[in-house]
């Protein structure tokens, strides 16, 4: 019997470990301490390891070989493990995820699509997290107050939609979606999908957590099996152990340098080996989080004592006990085979810093100053920024504070501006209580709201002008051109929080904390010692303010209102169905040169406020992409007027005149964020196909969901045969079939023609999406039958 806060409760082993099914009862069944962490689950929610075990055993028997951990969890969630074709890298799997999570920027469109489906309630546990719409400006309290005022209409929509359709709602100020998931919802063996590309953060707790577009989330919330191309598995064997200035962030920075931004495409990254045990649970989450930058479907670690410790400290000891019982299914089989194997000796790993402009340009911290001088990158650091969903754990903040404390002891503060973003309200409250926040403020830091902030471009930066060349150093995950502050001349580097803190104190990229000395206020030189901090607080976590809204038991009186005159929200109209004809004489809206991320296709920052209004946000379509014809961004030729103008205006002109158009792209088109707006916008403005050398996984799926044709050159050299002034015809659509290439006829202005072949990855279900006009249209057709 446990007595706490005036309540008594009894937890029996039979309640907790009955046939591997752990049900979460909302108070007062659990003791008060557990109740705080567990109260965000709904009464009918449970972990069913028994079903996972049953499915794994079926697949084991069928495949007759050892399984990787990734395979165990993925195949353990198959809709039909008996009949499902399973071939890594080839077949499409039909899966049953346990849970859906949506951040507020993508949740708007996801919930609008769910409303359009006509269904009364979500079929799986789902949550909305308000973290993307808070702009970093003056500091946590003022920024949060301003965000609540500016975004009131959107927050009200999400809260009422959640209440009406049975979705939990985390209010603004709660924290970043991925930190909230790690603290509350992730667990070993879970299959969770989230409408954000950094959802793999949950792999730090041994789950398969995958970033998707909103339309995928709608499928799962509607109770439809979710399709995923059977992933390959890249094994990363860790030996040795981390020590000194080396951190978990350095593992993924090193991996990114090895595999590059597309090296993980179509694969799950599975870490294993004796080195795993030297990494904290939140450190594993950091590594999995940034796996999104190498294109991986997701990343994960095997269940171990570090995860058990974290589960216990976050009020989930019962889950840890259950995971212990089923541990054989939460680690890879001995002798399992990987499609690719990389080995990293953690004992030899040095602190890294990656950038600028791409997260896979890796440098040892010791070398980056010399490289910067050679390349002409600014070495003076304007701003150091720590936090984000990648590095905002208690341990991260503790290690940064350990560095800052040494500087303060010698009378120093940061030479650079310095900002701190706690990952959640729980982290904020705990680092305030334990003194870390005070130390970081004393060294010159400004503590921002528990939100994404500058990491996603929500930063009202005042210290530089657009076009001014400068350097910032962050503990974030992504550093594409203009990503953080919309300035294409900002050279952004990513590294660990402790290295960011050290560099912000020194004010220059030329400082190597392992070797170099600082000069204290007394004129004496000193060297920073490698930081040491607890991975978890000695006391319990302080939960801070309660910011969670349960969906009500009685939803009958709930209403969701969208004003027809709103500039922030817009109900969706169905896209038109395929007319049964080939796509003839399409104009080329833009032929993109080089890297084209989802930030280039649908910018974030100030555009986030239109994420719930498709027509308004379509005014940012491809404004960051570089036009090969003139080397400029947001300047394309209108084939009808021959005048150059903005990309969205030109697309609207074609749409108004009934002209279909295509985009031609380069390698890894659509890498980066999971934002489906990058697929919705071209469809809304009349686009029909995107033809590239290769696609990033999430974006390719998003395009299919919205009824577009993502196609790749059978011969990548054919990219050079197409000129922006050509017309393209895609023929053979009447016989559109899985594995069968489509023919493309290129018509040049001089009357000449060339024929090339285009490949695709459509399966039969996805072809039905195209024919119906979108996956949502197809869902409605199936409901009517």
Automatic annotation (TrEMBL):
GO terms for molecular function: 4 iron, 4 sulfur cluster binding; aconitate hydratase activity; metal ion binding. It is found in: Mitochondrion. Binds 1 [4Fe-4S] cluster per subunit. InterPro entries: Acnase/IPM_dHydase_lsu_aba_1/3, Acoase/IPM_deHydtase_lsu_aba, Aconitase/3IPM_dehydase_swvl, Aconitase/IPM_isomerase, Aconitase_4Fe-4S_BS, Aconitase_4Fe-4S_dom, Aconitase_dom2, Aconitase_mito-like. GO terms for cellular component: cytosol; mitochondrion. Its EC number is 4.2.1.3. Residues 71-507 form the Aconitase/3-isopropylmalate dehydratase large subunit alpha/beta/alpha domain. GO terms for biological process: tricarboxylic acid cycle. SUPFAM superfamilies: Aconitase iron-sulfur domain, LeuD/IlvD-like. The keyword 4Fe-4S applies. Pfam families: Aconitase, Aconitase_C. It is an enzyme of class 4 (lyase). The keyword Lyase applies. It catalyses: citrate = D-threo-isocitrate. Transmembrane segments: none annotated. Belongs to the aconitase/IPM isomerase family. Catalyzes the isomerization of citrate to isocitrate via cis-aconitate. PANTHER family: ACONITATE HYDRATASE B, ACONITATE HYDRATASE, MITOCHONDRIAL. This is Aconitate hydratase, mitochondrial.
């Amino acid at each position: 019997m446990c007595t706490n806060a005036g309540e008594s409760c009894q937890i029996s082993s039979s309640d907790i470990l009955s046939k591997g099914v752990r049900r979460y009862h909302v108070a007062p069944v659990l003791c008060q301490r557990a109740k705080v962490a567990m109260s965000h689950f709904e009464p009918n929610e449970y972990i069913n390891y028994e079903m996972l075990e049953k499915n794994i055993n079926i697949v084991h028997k069928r495949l007759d070989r050892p399984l990787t951990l990734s395979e165990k969890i993925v195949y353990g969630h198959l809709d039909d493990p008996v009949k499902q074709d399973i071939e890594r890298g080839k077949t499409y799997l039909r899966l049953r995820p346990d849970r859906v999570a949506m951040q507020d920027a993508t949740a708007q469109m996801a919930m609008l699509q769910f409303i359009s489906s006509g269904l009364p309630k979500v079929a799986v546990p789902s949550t909305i997290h308000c973290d993307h719409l808070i702009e970093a400006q003056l500091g946590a309290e003022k920024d949060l107050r301003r965000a609540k005022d500016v975004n009131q209409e959107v927050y009200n929509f999400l809260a009422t939609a959640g209440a009406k359709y049975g979705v939990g709602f985390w209010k603004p100020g709660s924290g970043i979606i991925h930190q909230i998931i790690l603290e509350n919802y992730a667990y070993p063996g879970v299959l969770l999908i989230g409408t954000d590309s950094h959802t793999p953060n949950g792999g730090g707790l041994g789950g398969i957590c995958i970033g998707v577009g909103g339309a995928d989330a709608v499928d799962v919330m509607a109770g439809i099996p979710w399709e995923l191309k059977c992933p390959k598995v890249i094994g990363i064997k860790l030996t040795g152990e981390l020590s000194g200035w080396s951190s978990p962030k350095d593992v993924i920075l090193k991996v990114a340098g090895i595999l590059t931004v597309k090296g993980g495409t179509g694969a799950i990254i599975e870490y294993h080996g004796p080195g795993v045990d030297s990494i904290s649970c939140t450190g594993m989450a950091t590594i999995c989080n940034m796996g999104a930058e190498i294109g991986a479907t997701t990343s994960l670690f095997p269940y171990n004592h570090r995860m058990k410790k974290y589960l216990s400290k976050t009020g989930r000891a019962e889950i840890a006990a259950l995971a212990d019982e089923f541990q054989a299914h939460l680690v890879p089989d001995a002798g399992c085979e990987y499609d690719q194997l990389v080995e990293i000796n953690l004992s030899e790993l040095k602190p890294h810093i990656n950038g600028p402009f791409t997260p896979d340009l890796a440098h040892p911290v010791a070398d980056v100053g010399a490289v910067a001088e050679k390349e002409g990158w600014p070495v003076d650091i304007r701003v150091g920024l720590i936090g984000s969903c990648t590095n905002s754990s208690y341990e991260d903040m503790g290690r940064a504070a350990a560095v800052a404390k040494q500087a303060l002891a010698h009378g120093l503060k940061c030479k650079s501006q310095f900002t701190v973003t706690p990952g959640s309200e729980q982290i904020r409250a705990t680092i305030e209580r334990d003194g870390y926040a005070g130390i970081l403020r004393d060294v010159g830091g400004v503590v921002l709201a528990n939100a994404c902030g500058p990491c996603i471009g929500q930063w009202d930066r005042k210290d530089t002008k657009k076009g001014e060349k400068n350097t910032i150093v962050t503990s974030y995950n992504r550093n594409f051109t203009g990503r953080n502050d919309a300035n294409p001349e900002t050279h952004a580097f990513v590294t660990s929080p402790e290295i960011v803190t050290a560099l912000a104190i020194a004010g220059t990229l030329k400082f190597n904390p392992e070797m170099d000395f600082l000069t204290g206020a007394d004129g004496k030189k000193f060297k920073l010692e490698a930081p040491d901090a607890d991975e978890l607080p000695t006391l319990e976590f302080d939960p801070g303010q309660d910011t969670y809204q349960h969906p009500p038991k009685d939803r009958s009186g709930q209403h969701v209102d969208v004003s027809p005159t709103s500039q922030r929200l817009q109900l969706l109209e169905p896209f038109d169905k395929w007319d049964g004809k080939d796509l003839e004489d399409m104009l080329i809206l833009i032929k993109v040169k080089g890297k084209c991320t989802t930030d280039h296709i649908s910018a974030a920052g100030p555009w986030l406020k239109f994420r719930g209004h498709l027509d308004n946000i379509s005014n940012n379509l491809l404004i960051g992409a570089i036009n090969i014809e003139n080397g400029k961004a947001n300047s394309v030729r209108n084939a009808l007027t021959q005048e150059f103008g903005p990309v969205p205006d030109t697309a609207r002109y074609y749409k108004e005149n009934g002209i279909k158009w295509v985009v031609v792209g380069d390698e890894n088109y659509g890498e980066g964020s999971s934002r489906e707006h990058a697929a919705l916008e071209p469809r809304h403005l009349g686009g029909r196909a995107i033809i590239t050398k290769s696609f990033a996984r999430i974006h390719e799926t998003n395009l299919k969901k919205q009824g577009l044709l993502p196609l790749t050159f059978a011969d990548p050299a054919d990219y050079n045969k197409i000129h922006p002034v050509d017309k393209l015809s895609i023929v053979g659509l009447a016989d559109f079939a899985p594995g069968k290439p489509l023919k493309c006829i290129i018509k040049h202005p001089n009357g000449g023609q060339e024929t090339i072949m285009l490949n695709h990855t459509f399966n039969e279900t996805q072809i039905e999406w195209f024919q119906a006009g979108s996956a949502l249209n197809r869902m409605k057709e199936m409901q009517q039958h």
